[in-house]
Specification:
heterodimer, A: about 260 residues, alpha+beta, Thrombin, subunit H, six-stranded antiparallel beta barrel, 5 helices, globular, B: about 170 residues, mainly alpha, 6 helices
Chain lengths: ~260, ~170
């Protein structure tokens, strides 16, 4: 103990220098948006690098599980491919979304504003505001991008609102997490004239540029009517478990810039 | 001792006022604003407490940043230069590094010029690196460091000459 104190006293000038320097960086980051985003980029790069190592170890031990998932996914894709050939109306050039494959290397579900980090960045032509989905449902939207990594605002983030609708009758509303249960989200703004049953499927609405129409989000697990406003408050149980997702797909809407310029 | 401290406070306030009121909006050749407050860092006594000096420099940078709406480049460059100043004093003045008032009297002119040059160059380099904060802007950083550094050096040389004569 005495030695530690002696070492501290001996290096007091350097410690003071470091403390003031850290304070100054915090100060500059609070006062300047430019510096803030630069620091964010560096931080994403660093955490990305660290978690990438952790991820590669985990990945090795999870190979069996991932293989099973891939098999199921392949089966699904094959089925879709066959259906596609039957449906002559489906024209490939009409698809507005490009798909990039990525891996989640950091995932948090503990806070009320959760983020993920994925191992693709500007180098892989990822930009901000791209949708992220997994084979089982939606994950979130790309928030910040560094050269090799990107952070994703998780669907389990209170700031995120996603356009969603009922699969059966296309009644649409907005989906938001209330910060409590990690496998449930709230669907609001569905007018009471619509018929709602427990077990109804909720899919993406296709009104935003982030996600295509009709990606499964979850099923209705409970609902109540807000009589004062004339809308349902619907609990949706997510189809995917966000905390367990490893393989994700990033969707790039080719027409996003054009659509945004019209909004 | 008290007389010394009053003198330091005087240079501190003078540096801040001149910087904020005159040099910050000078825009010589359209983009060069000399950094005059560095005079305080230069003439602070050589054998003073290092901790006290770092805290004073930090305050100096912070005050300038707050008064000029700068995000924080002055604070960071002041802290860095105040931390490495003892090494620069030893490097520039060698055996004369223990002369308390070495910047004003008792040392050779070429040693003082080396010291002033080093302090100004490193301070400006840190200042502009933090301001631009991008590797790709290295040409702008170097251009600004050299041009602003030259103007600052001229101003500081005139002021130091004036102080020495007095």
């Amino acid at each position: 103990m005495q030695q530690i104190i002696n070492a501290l006293i001996k290096n007091k000038v350097f410690i003071l220098f470091l403390a003031l320097l850290l304070f100054s960086f915090k100060f500059i980051s609070n006062r300047s948006f430019y510096h803030h985003s630069k620091f964010d980029k560096i931080a994403i790069g660093l955490t990305g690098g660290i978690f990438n190592i952790k991820h590669s170890v985990n990945e090795y031990f999870n190979l069996k599980k991932i293989n099973n998932e891939l098999l199921i996914e392949n089966k699904k894709l094959l089925k879709r491919e066959i259906n596609k050939n039957e449906n002559k109306l489906f024209n490939k050039s009409n698809i507005p979304f490009d798909v990039f494959q990525a891996k989640v290397i950091k995932n948090s579900i503990k806070s009320s504003r959760n983020y993920l980090i994925v191992n693709k960045g500007t180098k892989d032509s990822i930009t901000r505001e791209m949708g992220v989905i997994s084979s089982k449902g939606i994950i979130g939207i790309i928030y910040k991008v560094s050269e090799n990594y990107s952070s994703v605002i998780s669907i389990l983030n209170r700031d995120l609102q996603i356009n969603a609708k009922f699969k059966k009758n296309n009644a649409f509303g907005s989906l938001n997490w209330n910060g409590i249960n990690t496998n449930k989200v709230k669907l609001s703004d569905i007018p009471v004239i619509n018929d709602v049953k427990i077990g109804d499927s909720i899919v993406t609405g296709g009104m935003s540029t982030y996600f295509p129409d009709g990606i499964l989000i979850g099923v209705v697990s409970d609902y109540e009517i807000d009589l004062g406003r004339g809308y349902y408050e619907i609990d949706v149980e997510l189809n995917n478990i966000i905390g367990n997702e490893i393989n994700v797909f990033i969707l790039k809407n080719k027409y996003q810039a054009k659509i945004k310029s019209l909004e | 001792m008290l007389h010394e401290n009053i003198k330091l406070v005087k240079y501190f306030i003078l540096g801040v006022l001149l910087q904020v009121l005159v040099f910050e909006s000078w825009n010589f050749l359209g983009f060069i604003d000399p950094i005059f407050y560095i005079i305080f860092i230069l003439i602070y006594k050589f054998d003073g407490s290092q901790i006290q000096f770092i805290l004073l420099s930090f305050t100096l940078g912070l005050v300038i940043d707050l008064l000029t709406q700068n995000p924080g480049s002055n604070t960071i460059s002041c802290i860095v230069i105040s931390y490495i100043r003892p090494f620069l004093i030893n490097f520039s003045f060698g055996v004369n590094a223990d002369i308390s008032n070495g910047m004003v009297s008792g040392t050779r002119l070429e040693n003082r010029i080396l010291f002033v040059g080093l302090i100004i160059f490193i301070h400006h380099l840190v200042y502009f690196s933090v301001s631009y904060f991008s590797f790709s802007a290295y040409i702008d950083i170097l251009k600004n460091t050299i041009l602003t550094g030259l103007l600052t050096s001229i101003l500081i040389a005139i002021t130091l000459g004036f102080i020495s004569k007095r």
